[in-house]
Amino acid sequence: MASLSGFKSSIDDIVAEGDRVAVRLTNSCVHSGTVFGVPPTNKRVTYTETTIWRVVDGRVTDRWCNSDTLSLLQQLGAVSLK
Predict the structure, then answer these.
(1) CA angle at 55 for the pair 53 and 57, rounded to the nearest 5°
(2) 24 vs 26: CA distance, rounded Å
(3) Which domains are seen in the chain, by residue range?
(4) Which is nearest to 49 in space by CA: 12, 5, 6, 7?
């Protein structure tokens, strides 16, 4: 996403079984452009993500990803859970 710059990911866990590989990540980036209608704040934000890949014959054939978008929106000030 071009509106999130300085993107860095750190791997928290990797689990593989059969033809699936699951990775739990922590992402960190700077909110440098409009995201979900929120103008840039230039704040560093951090959120987690879990991705699962299906690997067949050494090639990724499928990918499923779940990001903690609620946490990201809270940090951007777009959502408040009070």
Answers:
(1) 170
(2) 7
(3) 4-76 (3.10.450.50)
(4) 12
What mean pLDDT do residues 47-73 have? 96
Whether residue 55 is predicted with pLDDT greater than 70 in this model: the reply is: yes
- Indicate the average pLDDT of the chain: 94
User: What sign does the dihedral 58-60-61-66 (CA atoms) show?
Assistant: positive
**One-letter amino acid for residue 67 of the chain:** S
Residue 66 near residue 72 (C-beta atoms within 8 A): no
Q: Residue 16 and residue 29: Cα distance in Å, rounded? A: 27
Q: Tell me the pTM.
A: 0.81
Q: Classify residue 56 as exposed, middle or buried by CB count within 10 Å of its CB (0-12, 13-18, 19+).
A: exposed
Show Cβ contacts of residue 74 under 8 Å, excluding neighbours closer than 6 positions.
80, 81
